[in-house]
Amino acid sequence: MDADAGGNNKLRELALEVLPGDHEMRLDLFLCDRLPWRSRNSIKKLIAEGMVNFKNRVASRKPSARVKSGDQIAVTIPLPKPHPVDSAFDEGKLDFEIIHEDRWILAINKPAGIPVHPAGRLLERTVITALRECYAPEHGLMPEEIKLCHRLDLETSGVLLVSRDPITMPTFSAQFEFRKVSKEYLAIVHGAVRKERGEIDLPIGVARNSKIHMKRAIRPGAGQPARTSFVVERRFRDFTLVRLRLHTGRHHQIRVHLSAIGHPIVGDKIYGLDENFFLTYIRQGRLDDEAMKRILLPRQALHSCTLRIHHVGLKKEMTFDAPLPDDLETFLKSCDGG
Fold first, then answer.
1. Quick one: average pLDDT of 108-124?
2. Which of 193, 204, 291, 329 could staple 287 via S-S, CB 3.0–4.6 A?
3. What domains can be seen in the chain, in order of their start residue?
4. Mapping DSSP to helix (H, G, I), strand (E, B) and coil, where does residue 5 land?
5. Alpha-carbon separation of residue 149 from 8, 145, 274, 307 (angstroms)
6. Is the pLDDT of residue 81 over 50?
7. Is 238 a catalytic residue?
8. What strands, in cross-sheet order, belong to the sheet with 72-78?
9. Mean pLDDT over residues 79-103, rounded?
């Protein structure tokens, strides 16, 4: 919905879905998590002005209201200026590889820098909007039949599963919700990981004393259980390439866990050297040359390489793989020992 407020500021209605991991969050904190470029006070102002509405149920619209899994929330916000990441998507075509497709699902190799769905400042050029605008008409599908089965962060590349069949969609999504899907990632981290393999079993909760609302941290006694296993793939003088498997699905789990053991992911603006890199990037849309020299990569070096799931349509287990993308391979080749 585009409209004029006071004759000048255009508005856009943004549809947000509450996922199981967000169940029982405060409304204002949920919105801060999904709209990190807005302050908590501005979120509260949107709520107070009636710009936040529950579409699927009658619920309190106070900041302290609790959201529930499955809630559909509409937020009316000022139409933002184009974001630099928009250039990663060419309007009118799919700018990513389809690894697998059948009558039930698509497996996408998502590039870094393209969001999976509209959120925050990134409202238009996303995986889901591209599929609904380009793929759906070509295959005789209604746009609303194309739905995400799960999510990947903006800067994370790799395997992403998308449903194109409303009947089997809930069954695929339930496998993610109940941790029946095997997900493996590749990450380039700072330093030499001492063990060849290991497990990180540390609880994760909302970070305290951080200016970043969506930031998570290790919270003994207060966080949710989180477990990640890892295997060293390749070693370099100053970096290590590790393969990781998620056993739980906490927000930013891999990034939080690797940072907690002293090996943050290369290019991570939140959990790396200094969270102020992220705040600067959000405000300005870029980092200066000095900052780029410190973080080394324009995006976090995290890649979803393998996804295994029970295909409910074909009634068999299936594995989808995406090789390490060129930007990360190029970085590794530049390292000593590469």
1. 77
2. 291
3. 3-78 (3.10.290.10), 184-302 (3.30.2350.10)
4. strand
5. 38, 12, 32, 12
6. no
7. no
8. 3-5, 9-17, 72-78, 52-54
9. 61
